[in-house]
């Protein structure tokens, strides 16, 4: 699912997706990332882009070789889907927001196995690198009853910081000087 929100200063495109599981064949995984790439290519380059969903990817907390694409606050150990996700993020300048902020594991882990023993961080939110510093927090919302083995991932705080461009004070000063009686 893709939605584009138009704002006064910037537009935001949000893509919600569901990636194949780690056990899926390579063809299905490649097809998913090709489709995601096509959607991003059809999005204006200046938009804030957020990709989120069940990526079925464990990225872990070791950012060696991926320091631009992730932080050190992930959980677990990277799996094959995690490598694919990080390669995608590195190629398209995205950052995995769930790995940037220190939280207790209870606010990081998004999936509980049916046996109740295994817990993983496989649902992610990525933001394009241009807007990395606008993302202030990402965490799991526990307790929402959505009849799923996944917990909701919530964007807690996104603040848009805009730079001030030059003003036209010169034109105002000239108008004031040229007014009669000024």
UniProtKB/TrEMBL annotation:
Ranges where the Endonuclease/exonuclease/phosphatase domain occurs: 13-153
InterPro entries in the cross-refs: Endo/exonu/phosph_ase_sf, Endo/exonuclease/phosphatase, Swc5/CFDP1/2
Database matches in Pfam families: Exo_endo_phos_2
Family matches, as SUPFAM superfamilies: DNase I-like
Molecular function per GO: catalytic activity
Protein name: Putative craniofacial development protein 2-like
Record organism: Stichopus japonicus (Sea cucumber)
